[in-house]
Amino acid sequence: MRNFWIVPGSEKNWKQALTSKGIWGLEEKTFDKVYWLAIAPNDLILFYVTGKIKGVVGYGIVRGKFYQDVPLWDAEIREGRVKWPLRFEFDIEFLLPENRWADGNVSIPGGAHFRQPLFLMQGEDVDPIIQALNPSASVSSLQEFSTSVSTVKAEEVSPTHETVKSLLLEIGKLQGYVANLEFPMEAERLDVVWRRLPESVPTYVFEVQVGGDLYHALGKLKHAHDIWNSRIFIAASADDLSAVNQLLSGTFHEIKPILRFIEIEKIQNLHQSKQNIYQLEKDLGLIP
């Protein structure tokens, strides 16, 4: 059964969460952890902005949750420590443009004084909020428990850069690795990494190219291999293979023997297969 949550946060934190590809975090306190354990994939969340705005500016679907030991938000990077390690990822279903947050948000009675990190709502109370935000939304479909969002993504004909990153992230988690998006490497950020342990360096590093800069991506992968001896992968369409090979024959000839090229279609197929196996094992009671 799908649950519905209000997620309150400051305007600054929401902007960063949304630009961080849909990630929210809670403190590692007993009170907060209760809510983090309660929220689940396919739950619907309302983006409530506190402060002067005091209203809902969008909504999304929870994709998964994880414990994170890498700083993400400005305050964490500034202080050099993780303040909100209990995190969950979500896909944005609808979001008002930022210039409409002040006048287009939907207010909630008593919403200006949330004392908890998440607030559970009844489905019938969520309907008018969604309808006010997005009149074209199919409220009935949002009320239903949908199949995994990631499964739908895996079947997209033209996946986006963020879609492929999300697929690689979930494959890594299903493989039992500590998987991260936007992993810091000096002044750069790597699209996706898999680590064996939270404190270890990346074992696998992936750069995703969907109409991006291949030269820059290969440069980051080479550096990751140089400093961590990581296994490096470039994920792109089959049309990009010749361009990659050309760069590997010249500037990046040193990583030619170790770089693996993965077609995006194969990543989609692998993700779907992993999901099917996971669901089968769960149905058989082999995993909790």
Labels describing this entry:
5-stranded mixed beta sheet; globular; 288 residues; Trna Endonuclease, Chain: A, domain 1; alpha/beta; 37% helix; 2 domains; 25% strand; 11 strands; 11 helices; ph1033 like fold
Structure summarized in a few sentences:
The chain is an alpha/beta fold. It has helices spanning 11-19, 30-38, 74-79, 101-104, 123-133, 139-143, 149-154, 161-174, 214-228, 241-248, 264-283, and strands spanning 4-9, 23-26, 44-49, 55-67, 86-95, 119-121, 178-185, 188-195, 204-208, 231-236, 260-263. The radius of gyration is 20 Å and the shape is globular.
SS elements, strand count:
11
**Radius of gyration from the CA trace?**
20 Å
Q: How would you name the oligomeric state of the polypeptide chains in this document?
A: single chain
Order of neighbouring strands in the sheet with most strands: 2-5-4-3-1-6
CATH architecture of the largest domain: Roll
Spatial separation of the terminal alpha carbons: 17 Å
Average pLDDT for all residues: 85
From the spread of the alpha carbons, the general shape counts as: globular
Question: Could you characterize the architecture of this molecule?
Answer:
The protein has 288 residues and is α/β, with parallel strands linked by helices. Helix content is 37%, strand content 25%. The protein has a six-stranded mixed β-sheet. Strands 7-8-9-10-11 form a five-stranded mixed β-sheet, sandwiched between helices. A hairpin with a 2-residue loop joins strand 7 and strand 8 (188-195). Helix 8 (161-174) crosses helix 11. The two termini are 17 Å apart.
